[in-house]
């Protein structure tokens, strides 16, 4: 499918989704969110994929937020619908059965930071800058930022970032636990691909179940989360991949997983 505001490229078991509207630092409009929704549907349908990388086009930005020129004239109802669309799309991204990796190559502000937060792993280039500057515009984060950031870095750090509207550099983002690793601009995508390829070599059904256990468990009490894990663990027994993975270990060879 052809998109105007993003690119979706497939290479073996990996897909790379590039938000591509560099003239506005990849800011998200309603049409770009609708395209993102369609692209995620395309990804979800492709059963050969094992990992999705999300990044931004150009040298400067991952995504510099929701498009302020579009939002500026919104009525309350339009704002509710726009935030609803953003929430729906980011929930779809988060709920993909395959792991997702954000390669943050520049500004990740507002909705852009929230897009990264909906990915499972976040890596950043030295040029990246993160922030939720919405209160400076008389708004609050509207694509899940108040929820996902607080869950990732803790309530006080999230409140500090949201209340001050500060932009933090990649090193600080790593220090607060928002980013896993900081790499040079040239090494960012190769690093993300290497991580994605490593994930792709593991049992796909197991990786999906592990992702579900962590995600659903994070919103549950320990007892419920542990029960979820136990059910997922048990469910894997009897899958072809579990049989193959354990057999390959015993036979001292690399497993050949089929994803079933
Ligand atoms: N929206 C629209 N256009 C943008 C945006 C944006 N978020 N960010 C940058 N642009 C445009 C600029 O207007 C400029 O366009 P033009 O060349 O036509 O003047 C072009 O991109 C290049 O940007 P700058 O010239 O400003 O580049 P600088 O290097 O000087 O500055 C910054 C880069 C610091 C990133 C600056 O562009 C900036 O501050 N951008 C806005 C960042 C921001 O506030 N983002 C948060 C937006 S609010 C949000 O995301 C809310 C999400 C939830 C919404 C819920 C809805 C109800």
Write a brief structural summary.
The chain is α/β, with parallel strands linked by helices and 260 residues long.
Properties at a glance:
Lyase 2-enoyl-coa Hydratase, Chain  A, domain 2; four-stranded mixed β-sheet; alpha/beta; six-stranded mixed β-sheet; single chain; 260 residues; 2-enoyl-CoA Hydratase, Chain A, domain 1; binds octanoyl-coenzyme A
Q: What does this 3D model show about the protein?
A:
- The chain is an alpha/beta fold and 260 residues long.
- The chain folds into 2 domains: 6-200, 2-enoyl-CoA Hydratase, Chain A, domain 1, CATH 3.90.226.10; 204-250, Lyase 2-enoyl-coa Hydratase, Chain  A, domain 2, CATH 1.10.12.
- It is 50% helix and 17% strand.
- The protein has helices spanning 30-45, 68-71, 76-95, 111-117, 145-153, 155-164, 170-175, 185-200, 204-218, 222-236, 240-250, and strands at 6-11, 14-19, 51-56, 61-63, 100-104, 107-109, 121-125, 129-131, 167-169, 181-183.
- The strands form 2 sheets. Strands 1-2-3-5-7-10 form a 6-stranded mixed sheet, sandwiched between helices. It has a 4-stranded mixed sheet with strand order 4-6-8-9.
- Helix 4 packs across helix 5 (145-153) and helix 9 (204-218) runs antiparallel to helix 10 (222-236).
- The model has no long low-confidence stretch (mean pLDDT 96).
- It binds octanoyl-coenzyme A.
């Amino acid at each position: 499918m052809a998109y105007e505001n993003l690119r979706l490229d497939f290479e073996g078991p990996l897909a790379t989704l590039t938000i591509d509207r560099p003239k506005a630092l990849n800011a998200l409009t309603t049409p770009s969110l609708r395209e993102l929704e369609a692209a995620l549907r395309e990804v979800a349908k492709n059963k050969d994929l094992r990992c999705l990388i999300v990044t931004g086009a150009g040298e400067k930005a991952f995504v510099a937020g929701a498009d302020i020129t579009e939002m500026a004239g919104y009525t309350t109802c339009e704002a509710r619908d726009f935030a609803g669309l953003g929430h729906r799309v980011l929930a779809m991204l988060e709920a993909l059965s395959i792991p997702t990796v954000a390669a943050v190559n520049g500004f990740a502000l507002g909705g852009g930071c929230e897009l990264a937060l909906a990915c499972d792993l976040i890596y950043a280039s030295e040029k990246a800058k993160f922030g939720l500057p919405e209160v400076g515009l008389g708004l609050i984060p509207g694509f899940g930022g108040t929820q996902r950031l607080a869950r990732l870095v803790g309530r006080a750090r999230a409140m500090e970032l949201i209340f001050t509207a500060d932009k933090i550099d990649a090193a600080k983002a790593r220090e607060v636990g928002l980013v896993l690793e900081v790499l040079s601009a040239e090494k960012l995508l190769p690093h993300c691909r290497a991580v994605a390829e490593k994930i792709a070599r593991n049992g796909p059904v197991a990786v999906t179940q592990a992702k579900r256990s962590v995600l659903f468990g994070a919103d549950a009490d320990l007892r419920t989360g542990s029960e979820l894990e136990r059910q997922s663990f048990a469910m894997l027994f009897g899958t072809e991949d579990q049989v193959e993975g354990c057999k390959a270990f015993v036979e001292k060879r690399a497993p050949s997983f089929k994803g079933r």
